[in-house]
Amino acid sequence: MRLGAHMSIAGGVENAVLSGQRVGCEAIAMFTKNNNQWKAKKLTQDDADRFNAALVETNIRPVVAHTSYLINLGSPDAALWKKSIAAMGDELARCELLGIPYLVLHPGSHMGKGVDWGIKRVAAAFDRIHAERPGLRVMTLLEHTAGQGNHLGHLFEELAQVRELIAEKQRIGVCVDSCHLFAAGYDLRKPETYAAVFQRCDDIVGIEHIKAWHLNDSKTDLGSRVDRHAHIGKGKLGRAAFKNIMNDPRWRDLPGVLETPKGPEMKEDKVNLRVLRSLIEA
């Protein structure tokens, strides 16, 4: 894996890359805008040039962007659904300008309308987005979720169903999160259970569609359906699960990025990256 962490874009998008270099990242994750606001300052070609110069200087690749948490492509509220479609289109365009290959999205919440309804709603949203933004190189990665409340995507079957219903499915991949998998009931701790999880994933989703990992330990137990990130080896997953992940040749060259808590000096990222690298067998 190309290991890294989620980095802040405060002061300019290129700062996420430079901050990543300081803590030893090979890849990074980032937002391209404030993740809790609908509106965003427009990115310019100068922003893109500085960003790409930083990537060349640091050899950090790939970058995995994450959408705003406000977007809900499964919403039954017509106004919110349309607003989410517009916002998703804008985020794809921002990634395209910056040359970011992947944009991670939580599939959304059906808000009580039911899983089948929600899956169809999300797929319909993507068909609109793709029609409005043809020819983009950016791939959207549906993130596997922990399964809290009415959120879609905690089962491999749900991710596969969304992707299958989308007309331009070649524009859709998957991002898996170790904490979310565990909270959703997929046990990664023993080699045999880990192997069974990804055999099931391959059978239902297709391993080839996994393009990125979020590497987080879990504060909550197996099957809790509660998403609470912990430092690597300090949660319920433990080091054994990450040893299985880090030594799986199927993830070679994929980005594996931390979303663990950290302070302003980012010392925690350095420690977590060091732990992950220590688990790689020669």
- Strand percentage lies at 5-15%
End-to-end gap: 14 Å
Low-confidence stretches: none
CATH class membership: Alpha Beta
Q: Which class of secondary structure composition applies to the elements? A: alpha/beta
Spell out the CATH superfamily: Divalent-metal-dependent TIM barrel enzymes
Please state the overall shape, judged from the principal axes of the Cα atoms.
Answer: globular
Largest sheet: 8 strands, parallel, barrel
What is the spatial order of strands in the main beta sheet? 1-2-3-4-5-6-7-10
Walkthrough of the structure:
This protein is α/β, with parallel strands linked by helices. The chain has a single domain, classed as TIM Barrel. The protein has nine helices and ten strands. α2 links the parallel β2 and β3 (63-66).
Q: Short summary of the structure?
A:
With 282 residues, this protein is α/β, with parallel strands linked by helices. Helix content is 40%, strand content 15%. It has a single domain (2-278), classed as TIM Barrel.
What is the fold's blueprint, element by element?
Blueprint: E1 2-6, H1 14-23, E2 27-30, H2 45-58, E3 63-66, H3 78-98, E4 102-105, H4 115-132, E5 139-143, H5 156-165, E6 172-177, H6 178-183, H7 191-204, E7 210-215, E8 217-218, E9 229-230, H8 238-246, E10 255-258, H9 267-278
Parallel strand pairs: 1-2, 1-10, 2-3, 3-4, 4-5, 5-6, 6-7, 7-10
Antiparallel strand pairs: 8-9
